[in-house]
Amino acid sequence: MRGLRIMTKPIKYHASGQGALIAVSWGDPAGVGPEVILKSFPRLSKRLRGKLTVFGSLSYFLALERRLKTGVDIVDASKKIGKMFDGLRVDDVVDMKFSQKNFGKIDRLSGKAAMTGVARAVEAVCEGRFGALVTAPINKEAVNLAGYRIAGHTEFLSEALGGVEVAMMLSSKKLSVVVATTHVAIRDVPGRLSRKKLTGLFKLIHRSLIKFGVKKPRLAVCGLNPHASDGGLFGDEEKNIIAPAIKAVRGAGVDVSGPYPADTMFTQRAISGYDVAVAMYHDQGLVPVKALSFAKTVNITLGLPFVRVSVDHGTAFDIAGKRRADATSMIHAIKTCDQILNGKFRV
């Protein structure tokens, strides 16, 4: 294995000189990441195909293509390529051979290979070689076995950039949701909420959406407790934390309302009244968006100095290596990334 750089100090970001180009990290090779990348490629426009470079193992992709028979030409991205080339460029940052036996297994080497792809892609974006990052799924257990003590891509990217404030937005044509807390136990959620945290989050969402081209973003906020505490009967977080945070940012020009009961916030009628829902914890936000638009939802990291978009699914070890992976979410992730880069993103 070569090229692994566990980031012990923050990466400096340099404004991209190649703003239209997209780096793609290959994900865990024991999962479906490389498969959905390959399957997505023929279904993208020629213009968009020409923007992509995958960070992973060249020999692995060559072997996987022979197995899947996608018809995609694959080339080492470091070599001189003619302007007419219409194939997949792979930045060969991982020395890992393809093996059918490795699929579906939580493995240290696979976790290491996955994070090598992410780390090198992030470095390339921060060096200005690319304008954005698309990530295929990693397996958190495998990543932790490899020595990366992270909860996920979002947290890793924040740390890599020096602890920048970030937020996770799941977005589809039907619904967009930002979660106030990400990968934490339910019992820890109330302790992770504060007026300061929520006011910062509301402002971050507002800022990010305007940067993406949404002129007047409308935010609606979920309560934490059943029925948004029903006037204090089921908790006081709404009264003491959430409502004061909403009130504080309204004066700063942020269009935000709530807190609303989560069990009525995701009806079709309610959704039409806002652009982004803010949920208090992971499943409160991700369940409705995935129920409405699974495989057509993408994960967008807000707060980074560059655009990062991901698929809405995991490594799917149960179907890895069986040629059954659906590339729809990867296609949406790449197209959404391109839309944001071109100021055409809509919620």
Helix content: 25-40%
Q: Structural class of the helix and strand makeup?
A: alpha/beta
**How many DSSP-defined strands?**
12
How much beta, percentage-wise?
15-25%
Describe the structure in brief.
By secondary structure, this protein is α/β, with parallel strands linked by helices. 35% of the residues lie in helices and 16% in strands. It folds into two domains: 1-164 and 304-347, Isopropylmalate Dehydrogenase, CATH 3.40.718; 166-293, Isopropylmalate Dehydrogenase.
Could you describe the 3D structure shown?
It is a single chain. The protein is of the alpha/beta class and 347 residues long. Helices cover 35% and strands 16% of the residues. It folds into 2 domains: 1-164 and 304-347, Isopropylmalate Dehydrogenase (3-Layer(aba) Sandwich); 166-293, 3-Layer(aba) Sandwich (Isopropylmalate Dehydrogenase), CATH 3.40.718. It has helices at 33-40, 46-49, 58-68, 108-126, 140-145, 153-160, 189-192, 195-212, 237-250, 268-271, 282-293, 328-341, and strands at 22-25, 52-56, 74-76, 88-92, 132-135, 167-171, 176-179, 218-222, 255-260, 276-279, 298-302, 307-311. Strands 3-4-2-1-5-12-11-6-7-10-8-9 form a 12-stranded mixed β-sheet, sandwiched between helices. Helix 1 crosses helix 3 and helix 8 (195-212) packs across helix 9 (237-250). The radius of gyration is 20 Å and the shape is globular.
Summarize the helices and strands and which ones pair or pack:
Blueprint: E1 22-25, H1 33-40, H2 46-49, E2 52-56, H3 58-68, E3 74-76, E4 88-92, H4 108-126, E5 132-135, H5 140-145, H6 153-160, E6 167-171, E7 176-179, H7 189-192, H8 195-212, E8 218-222, H9 237-250, E9 255-260, H10 268-271, E10 276-279, H11 282-293, E11 298-302, E12 307-311, H12 328-341
Parallel strand pairs: 1-2, 1-5, 2-4, 3-4, 5-12, 7-10, 8-9, 8-10
Antiparallel strand pairs: 6-7, 6-11, 11-12
Helix pairs in contact: 1-3, 8-9
